[in-house]
Design goal:
The complex is a heterodimer of chains A (about 200) and B (about 280). Chain A has helices spanning about 1-20, 25-60, 70-75, 90-120, 125-140, 150-195. In chain A, helix 1 packs across helix 6. Chain A is mostly helical and about 200 residues long. Chain A contains 6 helices and no strands. Helices cover about 75% and strands about 0% of the residues of chain A. Chain B is α/β, with parallel strands linked by helices. Chain B has a single domain, classed as HUPs (Rossmann fold), CATH 3.40.50. Helices cover about 55% and strands about 10% of the residues of chain B. Chain B starts with a helix and ends with a helix. The chains are: A mainly alpha (about 200), B alpha/beta (about 280).
């Protein structure tokens, strides 16, 4: 069984890489479709067996928490969109999600946001701290659109903010390269070490 | 056509082949390049190291198969480190594939460390619900997890779960994050700020820049960034593994990317000069 697993993994790895090393082809498409289908099926099965079934068995059937049927019914309303005559029912769960979502964001986000603002109040006693504070202020100025970018101070601060942003994008790009290389590395480790056993 | 124009018009597949060779050679013959530990990884290590003897660590798995190279070594290190402190690991996944991915890794490392399932560690599997699930973990952990582990076994059968009825009971929460929007930030909002449980995050390199703001502001007590972070953790634990082995390939690939960027820019500017001339 383990051998079949190894061969399948190697086959699909090569199928996917055939896209970049050769060109778009049927094997790549096949691997892509298999991947998407398995992922979708996996989520449905796991959600049912690992969550819905035990929750219904314990909460509703055993503990008789019948009020839990209300969210289930609201959830089922979402599927009414497939039937034109009753599609309006989907508005109830959507309204609920929007209301709860907005309230949650308004109550929970400030705690994070204010801590981050607070973290920028640094003593200017190290080069790192000075750079940090200058970076925050100038980037905020860069995104300050209500005042025209005229005058030496605003223009200079805005340009400095742009430089800080470019440096941040550079760092982000470097990290992206690192992540992508890791993915390739993983597949090569698998092919050379686990499959071909030459490493 | 001069050399710069030829390089500019080179078939992109040649670059991919060069990249595969550059990444593959250190896999076949590791060089053992030195590793320097950064402050975020050191803080992550120290946060786990402060775990009280026998303490419980809730590890939130939020990564899929595409990120196993960066994230699995982080999970392995966490298991080894917690085991050194005689701690317990409770894993739960917020993404579908995360449950099975983490189970494969955890079973292997638990067998190696002789940890008993249900006593020293447990995998509660995939629990949907996102933010609602995170909030529910604080109010009633068992209900949030639908009372079962990954195999559908009732939680009351496992000694590790006895008395663990809220996320607030955890001595430490670790979140391995490789999806967007970041479950690192959302767990912070929903559960960590209200309960004030020590909290650290491991993530992929690609997501490190967006997670770094939470570390810099002190909201994450430590941060592991990608394979590099995992390699630093392995180094601190003195348990060299796949991450340290993979850093040679990373370093070579980065040199290649830098060379290509320099060549690309040289080609662009020299080509422009020629056009102007």
């Amino acid at each position: 069984m383990e051998q079949v697993q190894l061969w399948l993994a190697a086959f699909f790895t090569i199928c996917i890489y055939s896209m970049v090393l050769y060109k778009d082809n049927k094997l790549f498409r096949f691997a892509e479709i298999v991947m998407v289908s398995i992922t979708a099926a996996n989520e449905i099965v796991l959600t049912f067996h690992n969550y819905i079934k035990p929750a219904v068995t314990v909460d509703i059937v055993r503990d008789k928490k019948v009020w839990l049927l209300i969210p289930i019914i609201l959830g089922l309303f979402m599927y009414s969109r497939f039937f034109r005559s009753i599609e309006w029912l989907a508005r109830f769960p959507m309204a609920f999600f929007l209301g709860v979502g907005a309230a949650y964001v308004l109550t929970k986000t400030p705690a994070i946001f204010f801590t981050q603002i607070q973290a920028t109040f640094l003593s200017l006693n190290t080069i790192n701290n000075i750079l940090f504070v200058i970076g925050v202020i100038t980037v905020v100025v860069y995104f300050f659109f209500t005042v025209p970018r005229e005058g030496t101070f605003i223009k200079g601060a805005s340009e400095t903010g742009r430089i800080f942003l470019l440096i941040a994008f550079g760092a982000s790009f470097g990290n992206t390269v690192m992540s992508r290389i890791s993915v390739l590395l993983g597949r090569l480790q698998f092919l050379l070490r686990d499959f071909l056993k030459i490493a | 056509m001069n050399i710069w124009e030829r390089l500019g018009n080179l078939d992109h597949r040649i670059y991919y082949v060069i990249l595969i060779i550059v990444v593959g050679i250190p896999v076949l013959k590791p060089l053992g390049l030195p590793i320097k530990v950064g402050q975020p990884a050191q803080d992550f290590f120290d946060t786990v190291d402060r775990l009280p003897e026998g303490g419980k660590v809730l590890v939130f798995i939020n990564y899929r198969t595409d990120c196993i190279v960066e994230m699995d070594p982080q999970l392995i290190c966490i298991f080894k480190h917690v085991a050194q402190k005689n701690g317990k690991v409770i894993m739960v996944s917020g993404v579908d594939e995360g449950a099975m991915v983490s189970q494969a890794v955890a079973s292997k490392v638990a067998e190696e460390l002789e940890l008993e399932y249900g006593v020293d560690w447990i995998n509660l599997g995939y629990k949907p619900g996102g933010d609602v699930f995170m909030k529910k973990m604080v109010d009633d952990f068992w209900e949030a997890c639908a009372y079962v582990d990954i195999n559908g076994q009732p939680l009351d059968e496992f000694p590790i779960m006895h008395g663990f009825n809220s996320l607030a009971k955890a001595d430490l929460v670790l979140n391995l994050v490789a999806v967007v929007p970041s479950p690192g930030e959302r767990l912070l909002q929903m559960a960590i700020i209200p309960t004030k449980v020590p909290y650290a995050v491991g993530t992929t390199a690609i997501q490190a820049t967006s997670e770094m703001v939470f570390y810099s502001s002190g909201q994450y007590q430590g941060l592991l960034a990608g394979l590099r972070g995992a390699a630093e953790y392995e180094f601190l634990l003195e348990e060299p593994g796949d991450a340290i082995a993979g850093m040679d390939s990373q370093s070579f690939a980065h040199i290649l990317v830098i060379v290509l960027i320099v060549l690309g820019n040289l080609g662009y500017f020299l080509g422009e000069k020629k056009r102007e001339g």
